[in-house]
Task: structure prediction
Amino acid sequence: EKALYAGIFLVIMGLIISAVWVNIVVMLFIASGSAIYIIVYTMWLKRETPLSIVIGGFAGICALLAGWSTVTTTFSLSSLLFSIFVYLWTIGHFGGLAIKIQDDSERANIPTLSTVYGEKMASKCTALSNMALFPLSIIPYLLGILNEAYLFISLIIGAIVLTANIKLYFSPTAQNAWTVFKLSSPYLAIVYLASVVDILVK
Result:
């Protein structure tokens, strides 16, 4: 109950601060992301369908675009590419976790890909979603949006993550899924940091 009140307080404060000191667009993205994650995903879809994260993943896009809109309210190809990236990342990230905690999900009566369709199918779907991130991460360089520094960093970390996901695809086990999950968090952060580094050294 205390966690609920704390969460509500933080969301409300975030909306007020963004509306007063940043801009309305940021506030709308924060509100949308909070509504999608808390109401649509957690309170509704999570206990109804194993595909809940497909909708819940849009909350991640809202978070990214909220950050984007603090700098500019003009949307571009860059914002679209990174939105798609974080969306696919979210599906793979939670997919790896769901496989690892399959027993907990079954006890809590929460349907996931692994509890409904089995560990093998869930592992393959998770791996494919994550593998799609590798070519997607290179597109900003190919389109001239970012440069060699970004490409170098994203290729190295991307190759590590890609290798882990290929292993998961051909050897679908909970342990390999857990490895993929643990790699996914720093992967997202490093790719985003690479874009910042690239701009700073440009």
Notes: The chain has a mean pLDDT of 93. The two ends are 49 Å apart (CA to CA). The first helix runs from residue 2 to 22. The CA atoms of residues 85 and 133 lie 6 Å apart.
